[in-house]
Design brief:
alpha/beta; TIM Barrel; Arc Repressor Mutant, subunit A; 9-stranded mixed sheet; 3-stranded antiparallel sheet; globular; binds iron/sulfur cluster
């Protein structure tokens, strides 16, 4: 797996519409909008794209339609966005990874074929669990059978690069249920699998239920067992663990994810989306109507911008890189910051190494097996060290 070049960049496009609100979700999404709203929003995205004055010099290697539920958009709207990107950059897009997140139950065979024809070449389906009682508790709009059907239809429509998401640590979830979910997605032979631990986010219905004592989460050692079992099973079936939560068949890793973890630049269109561009970070207006109104009134849809300090950039580079299985590249660190990482974080490297939490492999520094189980502790140690340095 070759690292992206320092100048390779990506484009994230946020589509904030959902049919229903999942009980664990705190993303910037809205329900109850109609076709007219979708079209108006896409016009706003086109305006924002048009008003980006600095067209990057490097190579665009990934476009990611995330959400929300991008598959609520009619294929002609996605096609218009892709045409506008192609037109402005004056490059063909067939070598660009173009991912669309989709919810099972929102796509049929015809629509999937049209997305493929529009240029989408990678699909990410939110399966989450294989037991309908868990899907119902999460307020997902689909069943396990819908997920399987959407996957098969996507294959028939020509998608040869499909990711499936699963969540572990669900309320009352047993190890046997988690194993059943993993076995089920393995029979589909998806190209890429993402296994996420449930996070209880403030303000979500799950957080409220938890506070009221109406919810039981699996104990942390059971969640750790789920993660370990999933990892071992996927590796046994030929999947490469290339990041803490992500596994792919050889050559099918997500280019877009890797751009984030190697701290490459990315632009972002859409309400609340964040961009990073060589030391600067900016974010778009979060409110969907306000975002559209700002662009319609001649604005750029941007809510704020900050310049990262050198230490903040190093901190992000290290903790994002440590998420990857191979760790972060010391050579790349030198290229990016003009300094050897040991001269900045040498003491914390030595301490974590002595504790058996990180290890050096050639030019990379990575989490050890024990360090993976204590990843949050390792990240906190790095962040704390750099803040004090
Ligand atoms: S479909 Fe995805 S974005 Fe929409 S509410 Fe559910 S988890 Fe959130």
């Amino acid at each position: 797996m070759i690292d992206p070049k320092l100048s390779d960049w990506g484009l994230y496009i946020h589509i904030p519409f959902c049919q229903a609100r999942c009980t664990y979700c705190d993303f910037n999404t809205v329900t109850g909008m109609d076709e007219g709203d979708y079209r108006r929003y896409v016009e706003a995205l086109l305006l924002q794209w048009e008003r980006i004055t600095e067209v990057p010099n490097g190579q665009l290697i990934s476009i990611f339609f995330g959400g929300g539920t991008p598959s609520l958009l009619q294929p002609d709207l996605l096609a218009r966005l892709l045409q506008a990107i192609r037109g402005k950059l004056q490059i063909p897009l067939q070598h660009v990874e173009i991912t669309m997140e989709a919810n099972p139950g929102t796509v049929d065979a015809k629509r999937l074929r049209q997305y493929r024809q529009a240029g989408v070449n990678r699909l990410s389906l939110g399966v989450q669990a294989w037991q309908n009682h868990h899907l119902a508790r999460l307020n997902r709009i689909h069943s396990a059978a819908d997920a399987e059907e959407s996957f098969q239809k996507a294959r028939e429509a020509g998608f040869d690069n499909i990711n499936l998401d699963l969540i572990y640590g669900l309320p009352k979830q047993t190890l046997a249920e988690w194993q059943e979910s993993i076995e089920a997605v393995l029979t589909l032979r998806a190209d890429h699998l993402s296994l996420y631990q449930l996070q209880i986010e403030e303000g979500t219905p799950l957080a409220t239920q938890l506070k009221k004592g109406l919810l039981t989460l699996p104990p942390s050692d059971l969640s750790a067992d789920m993660a370990d079992w999933g990892r071992a099973k996927l590796v046994e079936r030929g999947y490469v663990p290339y990041e803490i939560s992500n596994y792919s068949l050889p050559g099918k890793h997500s280019r877009h994810n890797r751009l984030y973890w190697t701290m490459n630049p990315y632009l972002a269109l859409g309400a609340g989306a964040h961009a990073y561009w060589y030391g600067k970070r900016w974010w778009n207006i979060r409110g969907i109507r306000r975002y559209m109104e700002d662009l319609e009134a001649g604005g750029h849809g941007i809510a704020g911008m900050e310049t990262l300090s050198r230490h903040e950039e190093m901190q992000e580079y290290i903790w994002l890189g440590l998420r990857e299985e191979k760790g972060f590249s010391r050579v790349r660190f030198c290229e990016k910051f003009g300094i050897n990482p040991e001269s900045v974080v040498g003491p914390i490297f030595r301490r974590l190494h002595q504790q058996g939490l990180i290890e050096r492999r050639g030019n990379h520094v990575r989490l050890s097996a024990r360090g993976r189980d204590m990843a949050n502790y390792v990240f906190r140690e790095f962040v704390g060290f750099l803040q004090e340095a």
